[in-house]
Specification:
The protein is mainly alpha-helical. The chain has one domain. Helix content is 94%, strand content 0%. The longest helix has 29 residues. The N and C termini lie far apart (45 Å). Keywords: Membrane, Transmembrane, Transmembrane helix.
């Protein structure tokens, strides 16, 4: 169970970072 939770946590971090990078790219392009 703990291994599954760790995997979900790492995936959530990766997804959040990817979303932030996309937002930054969109903002830079708009400017």
């Amino acid at each position: 169970m703990s291994a599954l939770l760790e995997t979900i946590g790492s995936l959530a971090i990766v997804v959040s970072v990817a979303l932030h990078l996309l937002v930054l790219r969109h903002r830079s392009h708009r400017r």
